[in-house]
Prior knowledge:
By secondary structure, the chain is an alpha/beta fold. It has helices at 3-6, 24-35, 92-114, 152-166, 190-198, 217-229, 247-257, 268-277, 283-286, 294-299, 308-316, and strands spanning 15-19, 39-44, 55-59, 77-80, 122-128, 173-179, 181-184, 187-188, 211-212, 214-216, 235-239, 245-246. It has a 7-stranded parallel β-sheet with strand order 3-2-1-4-5-6-11, with helices on both faces. The chain has a 3-stranded mixed β-sheet with strand order 8-7-10.
Amino acid sequence: MNLHALGLMYAGNMKIMIAGGSGFCGRALVKHFRSRGDDVVILTRSKPSNPQQDIKSLQWDGKTLGPWASELESTDLLINLAGRSVDCRYTAKNKAVIMDSRIHSTAILGKAMRACKRPPPLWINSSTATIYPDTAGDAPTNTEGAAPGDDFSMNVAKAWEAEFFRHTIEGVRQVALRTCIVLGKGGGAFVPLRMLTRLGLGGHQGDGKQWVTWMHVDDFVGQIQFIMDHPELSGPVNCTGSSPVSNRDFMASLRRACNRRLGLPQPATLIHVGAILIRTEAELVLKSRKVISAKLVEAGYAWQWPDLEEALVDLASP
Length: 318
């Protein structure tokens, strides 16, 4: 009988498969699991090049079965981080790719899981905190029980989770990880934000009142480990920092962390124009995301970086 079935903490020497494991968050997880002595298998759409000697890297297309599927047998944990980046213009073509990359990868993993004699007892699948509607001002913070919204980003998240939970498998605990903005030195949103701040463009964006739900990459890793160790956690789980802050406060903290006293603000009109020029969407900056995890708080998760200022100072350090 496996550790999860016994309700015990996951120990080292596990076998873990990470789809999309070559990205920013995936690399952080690989580093964590390797430090514990676990065996890690990465699924990547690109041809593996110079893989680390102690990590197996397998190519897949995210929509069809292949030799990679046999690696799921007797795996202890499956984490799916696969999905096309939303940092693009929402053209009809890009919308289709964003949706399909999430649905297809989840569907084929579900098919591979059902074919296993001993499937992984825990399947963590990416979702997004953007599933919740724009939440401004003093409106209640969205926890896991809040109703999803209704626009393109939110509908992608709803379809993604619906596909995930369609693959119910006996003995497999499923967690949809509704992840917010993850900040880290190795990639993600922090790198361009730090660059803009150092160039004197670190003022508030739009009116600066929109909520920013953030987390340090250490807590992203920590929360996945916490979910592994707490078998009572299942279904949708918000993966966030300890508390959202306003965009104005976030950018002020980032300026202090980068030793910049001043930063030019960026009006919403300028952001919309700039988003067109750099081929992205203004909503990635202007949408008000106010999210926290009631499930993690109730289960006793303790944030490694609960304070935004301290987290940004850590990330801005050499």
